[in-house]
Design goal:
This protein is α+β, with helices and mostly antiparallel strands and 415 residues long. It contains 13 helices and 14 strands. The chain folds into 3 domains: 82 residues, Phosphorylase Kinase, domain 1, CATH 3.30.200; 179 residues, Transferase(Phosphotransferase) domain 1 (Transferase(Phosphotransferase), domain 1); 97 residues, TATA-Binding Protein, CATH 3.30.310.80. It has a 5-stranded antiparallel β-sheet, with no helix packed on it. It has a 5-stranded antiparallel β-sheet with strand order 10-14-13-12-11, with helices on one face. Strands 6-9 form a two-stranded antiparallel ribbon. Helix 3 runs antiparallel to helix 5 and helix 12 crosses helix 13. It is an enzyme of class 2 (transferase).
């Protein structure tokens, strides 16, 4: 049965108990008022970011990456919403909590560790095939669902293929100290896929041994151990697993085992089956382009993460871009603009450029503006007007006096 939408976030999500709290975000359990489905909502208070460019870029990156990933072992990002002060990630609710909490109670059997490791590698392989490198894989970022299956989360430090420099390597220093690969410490650039494999190896060691392979109270001493590859497998590990670790935690990235090579390894292969292609959803490019705004776009729309400009809409001819929000379907917005243009005299021309976009040209080409409609939520859209050529002063009056009032007029509701 659907829940009451009263006091629900965006009239859509009933927010419940606090699940976790970090330096810049809080995560709450919530329910979709329409379906009753449980979700997790990550709330970022923009005032805590203090216009920190690194943190803002991390948020943009996480949204951009998670919006393109659909795999049964990766936490789904359903949508991103925003107000003037906060950004809301609406995520798949993973009931079982962190893998870290489970392994903290004691090491796993090789069979159970292998199951989780196989699921981790399936997700990481999928990410790599789409040019995404996580760079912060650790048990705290691995969740378990109600079926005991693993889900990779937290892509805030991930890199994309287009972050690679001309030498074919990534150069940003990042990750958690105990899980960082030796080539990152060398500061000469690194292969994102190879460092993810190293971190996966550390995760597997923790699961099967119950402790970290490289550890020292002194951070520099720990880094020296990592750089030299100084670790020992406990005596209870099987010979096949010990040999597997010698390839996973190879300090030379060139000879370190690849994911494809892993799938041929005797220890890894036991009980392994590839994830069926039909269980991997594809985020179609046209779906992403069909004007569903995520917070990446919202952030880009306004300096300093201030969304005030999205709720104004008065056309200022001296500015190149103006926006407003409206509670209407994109197709209906387009129809309303067309109706206004048809009623106008004076040689105004209208050309559709895409499903929810058009160009308006004044008489004798004295101005050309584009008008695009983007979906913000199920109920809200953003209308963006952009000057492309000429003097938009002539268009300002038409927009402010005729088009904007029609767009912002609330749609009639049937009783």
């Amino acid at each position: 049965m659907a829940l009451s939408p009263e006091n629900a976030l965006f009239n859509k999500y009933e927010v419940g108990k606090l699940l976790g709290c970090g330096a810049f975000a809080k995560v709450y359990h919530a329910r979709d008022v329409a379906t009753g489905r449980s979700v997790a909502i990550k709330v970022i208070n923009k005032s805590r970011l203090n216009n920190n460019a690194v943190l803002v870029n991390n948020i943009k990156r996480e949204i951009s990456i998670m919006s393109r990933l659909r795999h049964p072992n990766i936490v789904k990002l359903y949508e991103v919403l925003a107000t003037k002060r906060k950004i809301f990630f609406v995520l798949e609710f993973v009931k079982g909590g962190e893998l870290f909490a489970k392994v903290a109670k004691g090491r796993f059997s090789e069979d159970l560790a292998r199951k989780y490791f196989q699921q981790l590698i399936s997700a990481v392989s999928y990410c790599h095939s789409r040019g995404v490198y996580h760079r912060d894989l650790k048990p705290e970022n691995l969740l378990l669902d109600e079926n005991g299956d693993l889900k990779v989360s937290d892509f805030g430090l991930s890199a994309l293929g287009d972050h690679v420099r001309s030498d074919g390597l990534l150069h940003t220093l990042c990750g958690t100290p105990a899980y960082v690969a030796p080539e990152i410490l060398a500061k000469r650039g690194y292969d994102g896929a190879k460092v993810d494999v190293w971190s996966c190896g550390i995760v597997l060691f923790v699961l099967t041994a119950g402790y970290l392979p490289f550890n020292d109270p002194n951070l520099m001493n720990m880094y020296k151990k990592i750089y030299k590859g100084e670790f020992r497998c406990p005596k209870w590990m099987s010979p096949d697993l010990k040999r597997f670790f010698s390839r996973l935690l190879d300090t030379n990235p060139e000879s370190r085992i690849s994911i494809e090579e892993m799938k041929l390894d005797p220890w890894f292969r036991k009980g392994y089956s590839e994830v069926k292609s039909e269980s991997i959803g594809l985020v179609k490019e046209e779906e992403r382009k069909l004007q569903n705004l995520n917070a990446f776009d919202i952030i880009s729309f306004s300096r300093g993460l201030d969304l005030t400009g999205l709720f104004d809409g008065k056309f200022v001819a001296s500015e190149d871009v103006n926006r407003l929000t409206a509670e209407e379907q994109p197709e209906r917005i387009m129809e309303k603009v067309e109706e206004v243009v048809k009623a106008e005299s004076g040689g105004l021309q209208l050309r559709k450029t895409k499903e929810c976009g058009m160009e308006l040209e004044g008489q004798n080409g004295d101005f050309v503006v584009s008008l695009d409609v983007y979906r913000l939520t199920d109920r809200l859209v953003v209308v963006e007007v952009k000057r492309k050529a000429g003097d938009a002063t002539a268009f300002a009056g038409l927009w402010n006096d005729k088009i904007r009032p029609v767009i912002q007029r609330r749609p009639e509701t049937s009783n």
